[in-house]
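Section 3.1: Structural characterization of target chains.
Under the original work plan, the team committed to producing a structural model for every single-chain target entering the pipeline before any wet-lab resources were allocated. The record below documents one such target. The sequence was received from the expression subgroup and is listed exactly as submitted; it comprises 102 residues.
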Amino acid sequence: MEQAVIAALLLVGLVIGAGVGASYARAQRGWKDYKTIRTTVPGARRTAWMATRAVITKIGVIALLLFGAAAYAASGSDHDRAGPGPTPTPTVTATPGHRAGR
């Protein structure tokens, strides 16, 4: 009976030890990954801000061009400076005349 109790305690200890060991290994991998990522974050952050800055600059230039085009279009018409336009030509209408066959 004493050997059965010792075997049961050994089995419980192995199960608990395996669970604790697996958790410890997972925590160590997590810390290692955290330290690796922590050293690469400043570079990634700098790259992300550079990309964001490029996009914002492009949007700003496009907005300024659109605003300038709208302001130019709204500033006045070019009709005053334009020369005279073409005049319509008179159309010649046919007069009712002789019909053939009557």
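The longest helix spans residues 2-74.
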